[in-house]
Amino acid sequence: MNKMRLEDDPITRVRDEMEVITADGRCAGHVSEHTASQIYTSNCGQPIPKEWIRRVDLEVYISKRWYELAH
To answer: Which has the closest alpha carbon to 49: 59, 58, 35, 39?
Structure first.
């Protein structure tokens, strides 16, 4: 069985005001709020589910391109 440990879940490293970067390198806004399952940004018209998060370091990188987000 392959269970993910809580510290392996990238959404646990998301913090308010982090920049969200799309797969094509554009800024989708800054994190305004987040839950255990999704993040909300200042610019994006839809919540971003945690399944879209590819990695989190100084920014949040998502797997969707700019044009795939509802604006």
So the answer is: 39
> What gap in Å lies between CA 8 and CA 38, rounded to an integer?
16
Cβ atoms of 59 and 48 within 8 Å: the answer is: no
Is 44 strand, coil or helix? coil
In a domain, 1, yes or no: no
pTM over 0.90: no
Q: How many domains does the chain have?
A: 1
| Residue 50 scores a pLDDT above 90 | yes
- Pairwise CA distance, residues 67 & 21, whole Å: 13
